[in-house]
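User: Predict the complex.
Assistant: Input components as received:
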Amino acid sequence: MPATYANPRYAPAPIPAAEERRQVVVGGAGLVGLTLALDLAQQGVQVVVLDDDDTVSFGSRAICFAKRTLEIYGRLGLGARFLEKGITWKTGRVFHRDREAYAFDLLPEEGHEYPAFVNLQQYYAEEWLVEACRAAGVELRWKHRIGAVTPRADGATLAVEAPDGSYVLHADWLLACDGARSFIRDSMGLPFTGQVFRDRFLIADVVIKGDVGFPTERWFWFDPPFHPGQSVLLHKQPDDVWRIDFQLGWDADPEEEKRPERVIPRVRAMLGEQVPFELEWVSVYTFRCRRLERFRHGRVIFAGDAAHQVSPFGARGGNAGVQDADNFAWKLAFVLQGRAPEALLDSYDAERIPATDENILNSTRSTEFITPKGEAARAYRDAVLELAARHAFARPVVNSGRLSRPSTYTGSVLNGPEGWAGGALPGTPAPDAPVLREGAPDWLLRHLGGAFSLLVFGPPEPSLPGALPRGVRAVFVDDAGTPGALWDHAGLARARFAAPAGGAVLIRPDQHVAARFATPDPAAIAAAHDRALAGASMEIAR
Amino acid sequence: MTLDTRPRLADPDALFALLVEAHRGLDAEASRRLDARLVLVLANHIGDMDTLRQAIALAREAG
């Protein structure tokens, strides 16, 4: 049915001649599996990806890519494509019945390369990831389905079924990115528990040519005249596609509601009789909020929907999965390259489980507001909306989805000293800022990540780079445009870190702040670097 | 902040009359919504989650 996009079909891979042993196998070539594979490959790790299909996502699916996710794709070399093709937005507007109740701005300040959100059909992101994976040497095996998993102390043995036959693949590390209905998770018998929400929603992606009269904002209606008693969410996507998400209630018949004869009148009631449109993609869904107890099970590691699931309100599914990949890839690369002990991998659970719980909490609270269960919950929900139209105090209580924010690993065992008060603390993703490089406009984050870096707020100090631990890059940022330094011409880089003159920030390969130092003392930096690698030097000395 | 449960109203009969008057002519659903709005207004005025938790616990126990 989609008229604006034709799924590419990738040739199925031949099967290997004999049993194989591979270092890293990713199960599932979806958004998260491909991101993880690309990140690992760019850090020099050989990766095989298995997928039971031969194409990218069918249907638009996850469409809201948050700023942090865009920064991750910037680090992986795909950021410009998202900006070019995607629909940039930052304003959310909430309506109750026929009037506006509340509006919010998700990025009220200037000076960031990436916006609060870009809307883009998931299939484009996956298609670009496939291209980038191929260029980075990732081995993608389409139509290779994992039929059985046997976890072992030194990896996992997979029985793989492909069009040309079956084979056995030994993986030293198996990264399970096979989605909410993860076969790997189920075959390992791991409980995936949480809350089920008794409600159904209809996604209608419609193509509307010409001016629709809606700005590129996220619009959310509670109890609108065109869909009484329920909620509706509207998002713009590229290719003149609009995502309309109608709440249907638990009693709706999912098969019946997918029929065009049912969908078209709902859309027409919303857009008006005079607006011509075509249905692009229709889906009816229910959702749950749940997670695995742990994401690392020895040599099998879960990421994305295979590890955790949330409601779609808040765009916390795909964005969380990409952040899982961002968190895990460098850690595994360092362990495989003998630069960190295996204990570093435990910090994936320590950092991503609290992040998941935060996503589940926000998602659950949004769901309880959007689909109140019981008379009292509904009365309070409506009371908030009634008050919000006229009283500022009630507006922050309106919850149409708390949109994905970057995870902050405060309290992580990998974090070192804070160095000074305020600004981006250890555990937070490094904030972006506009800088000038040799007079040309540039962005701070383009110089951070992929490896450890030491960001120094001062002119280049020639003796410093040689005094840093192996693999740590020095990045100098000053306020005078000294040659060899990035010029913080607007003062925003230093302000966002609240850094004193001469202050230094150790930044992890995933662009998160590891530690800060009021003065860059090489011994203190080495100790923090060691800590950020879960005691690397101690392990390597052993 | 500790929830203040001492008698603080100068004219308790007037408060009761005020509440009854506010609900006059409303059906059950409209009354429920009025109470919900009222709770939200007062909760914002108190502005302290700890005090509100104590108040909710006290109200639940008394029922």
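The first helix of chain B runs from residue 12 to 23.
Let me know if you want any component modeled separately.
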